[in-house]
Amino acid sequence: MTNANDLHETKTHGQLSFPYAVYKSDIPRDMRSFPLHWHDDAEIIYIESGSGVITVQSHEQKVGRGDIITVPPQSVHAIESERGMRYFNVLFNFSLLDNSANDVCYEKYLKPLYCQTELPPIFAERKSEYYKQLLPHVAYLIDNRHKIQTDELKIKSELFAIIDVLHRFAVPTAAAEISLKNNYDKLKILLDYIKSEYADELSVEAAAAMCSYSPSHFMKLFKDLTGKSFTRYVVDYRLEIAAQKLAEPAVGVTEAAATVGFNNMSYFTRAFSAKYGVTPSEYKKRLSQ
User: Fold this and answer.
1) How big, in percent rounded to 5, are the helix, strand and coil portions of the chain?
2) pLDDT tens for residues 180-229?
3) Does the predicted model carry a pTM greater than 0.85?
4) Residue 171 C-beta-side C-alpha neighbours within 13 Å
5) Would you call 50 exposed, middle or buried from its count of C-beta atoms within 10 A (0-12, 13-18, 19+)?
6) Residue 253 · residue 282 · CB < 8 Å
7) What burial class does residue 27 get, using C-beta atoms within 10 Å of its C-beta: 0-12 exposed, 13-18 middle, 19+ buried?
8) Cα 240 to the center of its chain, rounded Å
């Protein structure tokens, strides 16, 4: 998995010749959360234990053991735990299943999903036929995640089966969803800006201008898309990076705060305590233990 500050995942999952990987993740052991990010791969998330909240575009869902979530390529999504959550990520690039630019299967089944002109259900309800058809294929990929270099053909067949299920349950993208996607495309530009400039002063006016919106429209739209105000999002993002910095033995609390743009130590301590339930010093002490 990438670090929290990589909003746009550009790494290749698996190998260039076989862009496919299965990861097992644990929140909060591996990370505090997985904030808004996106990548060009399709992703399937299977919750092994615990509970949390997964957001895909503006669709937010509480999830628990056994749930399956499908994330279309290029979709902005986030993962948060409530009291700890273990889950598997199955990631694959559509290029793995595409033989040529004129491949009829790509045009008919893969391209609509990649371009999001049709969308399958994001959250598979456990009693639904959609879930029942997805589960055997997802389970196989998870159970055989260590056989990537020996079972390539079987893995591709299971991925094709998953695409078939997604396609059969997909519906044409509604006008509202297309408009939402266009807004998220603008949001991606802003998230990249935050990624590179988070330690500097980030004003609502500058962010709104970047998205070609008025400040008032931007503030409402940003909260609708992310569930947070722009200011709250930037503060939370800085705190995520600060928590990562504190995990480094050589980085002290003052340095971690300054590195992410907090010049007021009192405010940094209050904000960090409100988010993580402990002061930065206590957090670092627990990590060292």
Assistant:
1) 50, 20, 30
2) 777 778 888 888 888 888 888 888 998 988 888 899 988 988 888 787 88
3) no
4) 5
5) middle
6) no
7) buried
8) 14
